[in-house]
Amino acid sequence: MEKKFGVYICKGCGIKEAMDVEKVAGAAKKVQNYKFHDALCSTEGVQLIKDDIAKEGVNTIIIAACSPRIKYEEFDFPGAIIERVNIREFVAWTMEPNTDATNDAAYDYLNMGIVKTQKGDLPEPNILQDLNKTILVIGGGIAGMTAALSAAGAGEKVVLVEKEAQLGGFVNRLYKKIPTGSYFNKPLIVDTDIAKTVSEVESNPNIKVYKSTTIAKTDGQPGLYDVELSNGEKMKIGSIIMATGWKPYDANKLDYLGYGRIKNVVTNLELEEIARKNNGKLLRPSDGKPALKVAFIQCAGQRDANHLPYCSSMCCATSLKQAQYVRQNPDALAMIFYKDIRTPGRTELYYKEAQNNPGVMLSKADVTGVSEAVNGNMFVEMENTLFGTKTGEKVKVEVDLVVLATGMVPTTRWPQ
Amino acid sequence: MAQNKLLIVGGGFSGLTAAVEAAEAGSEVIIVEKNPYLGGRVTQLNKYFWKLCPPNCGLEIQYKRIRNNGNVTIYTMAEVEKVSGSEGNFDVTIKIKPRFVNDNCTGCNKCSEACPVERKNDFDFGMSTTKSAYLPHNQAFPLKYVIDEKTCKGASCAKCVEACKYDAIHLDMKPETVNVKVGAVVMATGWNPYDATRMDNLGFGKVQNVVTNMMMERLAAPNGPTQGKIVRPSDGKEVKNVAFVQCAGSRDENHLAHCSYICCLASIKQATYVRELYPDAKAKIFYIDMRTPGLYENRFYTKIKEDQNVSFLKGKVAKIEQAENGDVKVTAEDIHGGGKITETFDMVVLAAGMQTATESLKGAGIAPTEDGFVDQATLPKGIYATGTLKTPVDVARSAQDATGVVLKSIQSLRRK
Question: What top-level class would CATH report for the domain B5-97+175-190+357-414?
């Protein structure tokens, strides 16, 4: 476009008191057309600019006034190049008034603004041809399914790719879940209802589901991705949502806690599977007997420089939930050994329910090891507990099942 | 035909995020904010945990996204009075308090200079004053002055009106009512700090130099009452020995039964403020459980534990009393050592919890749950809750939640 410049210098808000505006306007000489106003943002000031646009054909507007944080609605002239030069906050309000340095600074800011408009043009929208709006969701667990349903519900086309033979991810392996929202007057463990979500996804006309499928290749750019699936199918995709989730930390690395060495030491995920398979009964792997004294060891391989240095956020709540599984048998006792119980927000009220349960015992403890006792039982060895022991004094507790609260490793870090 | 318009109640970080995400996805957005400025609680913070960067830059990005998007209408000093109708077609009545300053305001500060009345600055929790004609804080957006109705002497004074060169001040402004039609409503009214005077044993309001965590943010902030120098409110003494009292009101059935989630990380962060400012200073954190779930959060905790001058004591604080010379005596149980300990500090910071701002829900006809929050499942179709209304969360999680909730609300706008 042929540029017709207009430089507008505001004298209000203390600008003219702080600098020699005529000198500052010298920077505008190279484009010739410049004007002053006492309050450029006023109706008359804005009209001055509008008149120049209408009558003179001004299309490149340099406004030397206040910060672009304000008066952005007033100084909005569609179709024109607009440059805001901040001589109020940057100069008039913050520099010593009426010195050479102050005048020079304002002059330079204006000069820079003008040169910027001389060198630049209005951005041409780079609208690519044949943009695709299909959303690819990778991973059919609860995150991926929620994303797919929400996008489809907003009218978008979705392709959902899951590497397993069925949708649902880890939730498929759970026996029950913690209810969401208020815990008052509710059962403390509820069905996951994952089958319902899976069928909503599979029956949604906007979602195309691929199971037992992975992504072979992605290429291209936003709006124009070329995606190839493991079955050889190729498709155009607009954007991609990664929802590939997590894997449990490899418990074989936790042999000091007995895993792999002692049969009745299981992970929190394995406990879910035991409960699910036996309709809620917690039967020991070694002999199939119901577990009556279950120890949960929190932060198993977590918050530990030798394993996962971080906290997985979900294991405290998971063990509190699993303690409720234990308590479905009124004769059984659950013991939770923790570094800190981390139940932020309203989950605290869930923790409270466990504290009020006579069959759930909770103690801070540094668990140092798990050893075998007789009849498939185990000793959990610990120190620094809340049992009234002295600092460093070791304690042993005999239990018939040990659950390791192992953590989450993102799939992006797999293999571990 | 459903309205392609979304009402967002609350312009804090959740509401702002919801607004820009929805507007950029092509919906028209109305923000109703009860304060004279946007940004909510985040505007009062000195730094974010765990990055320790100032929140202003993230806020400015959100404001810029709003400025560059013509789809957002902002009502400040406004509250929702009534919501009727159903998903796709809600009728909303918005009540706007008089600001006494119109859009002509350039932010030049002349009204404030001329105003003869001082008021307590609630933005700084009463630790500083402003004039009755004031800018809420120096990064306020929209950058527009306000006249405090409660303290202004009105037309008999009108010195501000004389001082304003831009005809921006009208002391006869009346409350206004605006009616809008929207397709969906997002409630993002946030939280208030729990009233610390309600915890008798912790001495707030009676014992000198006992402050809340939000007050500590203001004391540490460069735009706060002490320009970022952390000193004792009673005598301006540099604080060299500070106690942080966790769960001040939280996890306590007499006060807030829930865990407020942010306070452990906030106290760790505030310990870094003190340590950075005074290299020889000491900080002690009294806690029940240190709750720093996650990857970076736990790393933040691990890192500060390396600082020899920051110590952690597991035990609940029983009593806070005045010692000599403005010092503060703290008595706490020592769970590991057994028994009680008593120590004296320069200043004590109460990690006061989050209380849901439920008073702002009434206009929308929403009743909180028994535990004081909002459950999405209990809301009418087309009305959504986000952020700390549902459970205490930090800023990052508020932003994530708001983004997700926007996708839900867009479904309400697009449903046929």
Answer: alpha beta
